[in-house]
Amino acid sequence: MRERLHRRLEDVTGVPAPSWLATLQGPTVEMSEAEVAGLWSTAPASARNHLYLHVPFCKSICSFCNYERLRPSSPDQLTAYAEQVLASIDVLAPATQHLTFHSVYIGGGTPSVLPARLLDQLLTRIDDAFTWHPRAGRHVELDPQVIGASRVQVLVDHGFHHFSFGIQTLDQAINARHNRGPQDRRAVRRCLDLLRGVGTVHCDFLLGLRGTTPAGILAEVDDLLSGPNGPDSIDLYELLPTATYLAAEFGGDRDRFEAHMVPFRTEVDAPLRELVARHGWRVQGQGRHSYKLSGPNERLEAPRYGYTQLVHIEGHPINLLGLGPSARSRVFGAAALTARRAPTGHRYVGTTRGLAGEVQIYLAHVLRDADEVSFRTLSALFGPEVREVMALPIAAWRALELATVDEHTIRMAPMRTPARARALLWLVATEDIEHELARRQALPIEDAVAVARVPGPWQIAHRAGCRLTLERDAAKVVLRLAPSLDDASMRWVLEEGAEHASDPELRRAVRSLRRSLPPVSPRIGGVGPG
After folding, report:
1. Are residues 263 and 174 in the same domain?
2. Interatomic CA distance for residues 395 and 388, integer angstroms
């Protein structure tokens, strides 16, 4: 499948796929915490610097969530988590002394499951270990059902001024159906009352949860805006389903899900804008993927830096330092990494994509919601090399009539969300597509690599992520376990050592590996990059 896709790329664009892959995608890497510290010592000081603390615990696991999260089983588990984060700070903070941080965000999971004592311990260390801009933003996510006065006081004492929480829906029965617990209007109002006067408050709704309707969500937004002590801003996000959610709620049928989403895409926009205007609020964005609603209240405090992981929102290069398991880090123009649990400290996996990766991430987000982007903007952020980096996707979009491109602007053809997502795949190297499919379909790739065994003279010399290195005398091959691009199965790809492909013993080893692959769930139809 990978080879067929390569040929398709070449046929459509005239650009040799191997050349494109070398340009767009750096190698997948695995690094120790000490190696990551070395990377941070080279981070450009001219970028905006943000810190993200990931707290991977929730009181319950929502059925639609695709983030890494755990139910805390004991106070000792929370204490062990905090100790590991403190140890990471000891390793990474000295490498960032040349950087001034402009914001910190505590997300999850649900950070408010941490007791006040642990919150204070972590925040004190973060305050002391890093250099902070006087107007640094401080943001935290919370759960209305577990936040309390003591936790809020700790956050206020450490300068936190922006609080956010997910509502998704105010319907208690639908929340219970999705394993969110008994959250309802009363719990949300209690939380808003608790946060009155301590900072700005942001809430989220989801468009498309099974059991909700466009009219019902609009009524809930109206209810929230009509009541006393409401939030300062609201986001409405279109549901992006995981494979498990599609299986549980739509029998694994992507077409059924898309039919369910049609009313949310066609019956929300105009009534929402009318509703929001009636309350003196305003709507930002085109509404293709999300709506951002802003309230009329003016901020009385001096403006602070906001937190974001995205260059297109910042309008400036970004370094992102992630702390905690599964937290993402980005050193601008160098690497994008994700932390993984390890017996001691953390390991980090990701790519050293360089400039090409930065451009890819930027365009994927901008063109998801907008129809055009200017080369002037791209060059200001990434330099004149941006046109070379964009050679293949531009050629593909032109050939398939997905976009028009002139000297100044890339203009995408109008299309619905699924079609736009498919068009944006031309930005992404094939291996990245495969990894995203594997994650969405919950394929146990790393587990399968960990337990792989081979017979005969070819022996496993090294395991790393999704790869096996096999050696026989002085010969070496590298196999990568990847998902099929058109179904939920797994296959072995010969990545290095093609000159040994005809070796009958190697073929026997690969057949053995194929037979020993663990079973996977039935195919979830049409799962894409959503």
Report:
1. yes
2. 11
